[in-house]
Design goal:
Elements: H1 15-22, H2 39-42, H3 56-63, E1 114-121, H4 140-143, E2 151-158, E3 165-172, H5 177-180, H6 187-197, E4 199-206, E5 215-216, E6 224-226, E7 231-235, E8 254-256, E9 261-266, E10 272-276, H7 290-294, E11 329-332, E12 342-344, E13 356-359, E14 364-370, E15 374-376, E16 378-386, H8 393-399, E17 406-415, E18 424-431, E19 433-434, E20 437-438, H9 445-450, H10 452-457, E21 464-465, E22 467-472, E23 479-483, E24 510-516, E25 525-533, E26 543-544, E27 557-562, E28 568-572, H11 575-578, E29 584-588, E30 599-603, E31 609-616, E32 623-629, E33 665-671
The chain binds MU-OXO-diiron and calcium ion (2 copies).
One calcium ion (CA) binds near residues 423 and 499.
């Protein structure tokens, strides 16, 4: 199907990415028209501050153990979203920052003394029966056995003490049919193959010894593809609700597939969470009810999947509820390749960027989540049950249900005024559910969980500038919220600056630092400040954590990670239009005199965004992984704009298994061997 799109959008990405990934969300009316929290309301509230978890080291230790994975008993795998070590001091991964890179550079740019290589690319065979990638012979069957398209969330979870086995888990957010398929491809084959290119991948990695490069193992036992045809179980309070039933599933508990999986998180029990984000754009809908309008349904379904399967047509009575079965946090156990993945209704339904879990000092697990839309909210889930330590099956079985029951709340940030020159203040988690009951007058618990945005509107949370990753840092007990941008802030008829979102027409984004009260992630109150207000250094309104030396320019923070000593690593999405250079990955110390010292580690190829950073700085001289998403996004089959990472020359012979166009790819970066 032809998708003629050019130019840049005010959403800070190419028009192609905006249309295919988000359904042009930033060009549509703001979905949140509720009357919540204007600057004048928040600016006068009192400030309170408190820092750092008491006894956090013990919590961090418990959170590094992932008992669910199949691994030699002597060595538990270590979710890399959970920093190891924690002895303090500088990270072992030392580098000289790179300069910003022009957006037409079609390679991964890394610091002096480092090199990069692909770990796995779109189309690489994963399952035992997978054919070699052939872009001219794509089918749903081949794609469902190969690595999917547009990798976003990523983790590399080591499985043994010697560091020679690992599991790579990745999300596949969306497809770009224009550059994936020849123009004469059968449209139904394109649609069905695109379903298979969505979802997630689990892939075993091997290497000879620690410090060496990883390679993936085709056909390995734990390898798995999850697609739009994989059956999911819905669990939690809304499972079985009328709101989740369709002609194909009278139980309201069995859903086919997951899609638009953006970011995610690895849990302390070794499962992986993934956020279903811009699900609305896949459905044909009238867009007339408040529920549809608030979720952007009815704004068009560019891919026209309804022509191949009626479930994508929500205007029919049979499938009116099908959109309600997407927009959830899903949980996958990569150690059990035949397990049924779960959609957690207890964690609410919105445009989930991801979910990141920490074990609180009292043993309850806490998931932080962003709803990535202009003027939408930050959420928190606190489990009813407590995390159980240990490697046994009973503990694993118990922990697998921790996200099935608990309390959902939404954040209200109050400022103390900008007269002090600092964006900071206090905040409250406002309850939406408690003990399995609705806390929102007029909403049943099913309605709170299925129409979470509407329920949240009723309790007046703070409208944020597109909250993406919301990531707890085990080293200081604080939580970091990447607000990627919001060029609508302060525009006519739209909410103006607030202390936690202090800039009008915010094209560069900022990062909020949340400090839970008394270091307790389950506490109702917190304090907060802004650690970064991004942009070109020296321009009005930017702030780099108080650091007064030279910093790398940075904009549009999206995915976050931490290294072994608690430095923040920030991946960006949107710099070609905001700053005029490629997206990249940045290290940002959070403590001491170096706080806010932004240093660029890498830049991604032309058209790509940087996703899913994983920092293994204790692996030899250090190893960093990123998911390079949508390289060459503005091209077409006949006129590809990127050849990353195969670099097949134009008009040259295409080697078997390669592609004369761009392939979304997981890349590893490490110090070049001498
Ligand atoms: Fe898929 Fe919020 O980025
Ligand atoms: Ca202030
Ligand atoms: Ca993202």
């Amino acid at each position: 199907m032809a998708l003629p799109m050019t130019g840049r959008t005010h959403g800070n990405r190419s028009a192609v990415t905006c249309r295919l990934r988000c359904g042009d969300a930033c060009a549509k009316p703001v979905a949140n028209t509720s009357e919540n929290e204007y600057f004048r309301d928040v600016a006068s509230r009192a400030l309170g501050r408190r820092s750092v978890l008491a006894g956090m080291a013990g919590v961090a230790l418990s959170a590094t153990v992932a008992p669910g994975l199949v691994a030699p008993a002597a060595a538990a795998p270590i979710p890399s979203g959970v920093a190891r070590g924690g002895r303090g001091g500088p990270s072992p991964l030392r580098f000289a920052p790179i300069a910003p890179v022009a957006p037409d550079v079609d390679t991964v740019t890394v610091p002096e003394g480092f090199s990069w290589d692909p770990v796995i690319r779109w189309g690489d065979p994963i399952l035992a029966d997978a054919p070699v990638f052939d872009p001219l012979q794509q089918s749903p069957r081949s794609q469902a056995a190969q690595f999917g398209y547009n990798c976003d969330y990523l983790d590399v979870i080591e499985m043994n003490g010697s560091g020679t086995r690992a599991l790579l888990v990745a999300n596949h957010e969306y497809t770009n049919e224009e550059i994936m398929f020849p123009p004469d491809e059968d449209p139904a084959n394109v649609v069905r193959t695109a379903w298979a290119a969505h979802g997630m991948s689990v892939v075993e990695l091997r290497r000879r010894r620690r410090g060496k490069a990883w390679t993936y193992v085709p056909g390995a036992r734990l390898n798995r593809r999850i697609t739009l045809d994989t059956v999911f179980q819905m669990d939690g309070p809304a499972a079985g609700s009328e709101l989740l039933r369709t002609a194909a599933d009278a139980s309201g508990r069995r859903v086919r597939g997951t899609m638009n999986n953006c970011s995610g998180g690895t849990t302390p029990w070794g499962t992986v969470l993934s956020g279903e984000e811009n699900f609305n754009q896949y459905f044909h809908a009238t867009g007339t009810s408040p529920e549809e309008v608030r979720y952007g349904l009815g704004e068009g379904d560019e891919r026209e999947w309804r022509t191949v399967d009626p479930r994508w047509d929500a205007t029919t009575p049979d499938y009116a509820n099908e959109p309600n079965r997407f927009g959830w946090v899903v949980e996958v156990d990569p150690s059990r390749p035949h397990s049924t993945p779960v959609k957690h209704t207890a964690m609410g339904r919105f445009k989930h960027e991801g979910a990141n879990v920490v074990v609180a000092a009292n043993g309850h697990v806490v998931a932080y989540m962003g709803d990535d839309e202009r003027f939408d909210y930050v959420y928190r889930f606190v489990s009813r049950d407590r995390f159980r330590r240990g490697h046994g099956r009973a503990a694993a079985r118990h922990n697998r249900h921790l996200l099935s029951h608990g309390d959902l709340s939404v954040a209200r940030f109050s400022g103390d005024g900008l007269e002090d020159g600092v964006s900071d203040g206090v905040g409250t988690w406002i309850p939406l559910t408690r003990n399995g009951r609705s806390m929102v007058p007029g909403f049943s618990v099913d309605e709170v969980l299925v129409f979470t945005r509407l329920a949240a509107d009723a309790v007046h949370p703070t409208k944020m500038d597109r909250p993406e990753d919301v990531q707890p840092n085990l080293h200081n007990g604080r939580v970091y919220v990447a607000c990627t941008n919001n060029t609508d802030r302060g525009m006519p008829g739209k909410q103006g600056p607030t202390e936690p979102n202090p800039r009008p027409e915010n094209k560069d984004g900022h990062i909020v630092e949340i400090v839970p009260r008394h270091g307790d992630h389950t506490a109702r109150r917190f304090s907060w400040n802004l650690v970064l207000v991004c942009g070109e250094p020296g321009t009005a309104g930017t702030y780099f954590g108080g650091y007064d030396g030279a910093v790398s320019p940075i904009a549009c923070p999206d995915n976050l990670a931490f290294d072994s000593v608690g430095n923040l690593w920030v991946a960006t999405d949107g710099q070609p239009s905001s700053l005029g250079h490629s997206d990249g990955l940045y290290k940002v110390p959070l403590a001491g005199a170096e706080r806010g010292h932004v240093q660029q580690f890498l830049a991604v190829p032309t058209g790509a965004e940087t996703c899913g950073p994983v920092v293994h700085d204790q692996d030899g001289h250090g190893r960093v992984f990123v998911a390079v998403q949508h390289p060459g996004e503005d091209g077409s089959w006949e006129a590809q704009l990127s050849r990353f990472p195969d670099y097949v020359p134009p008009q040259g012979r295409v080697p078997r298994g390669e592609f004369a166009g761009p392939r979304p790819t997981v890349v590893q970066v490490s110090r070049t061997p001498r």
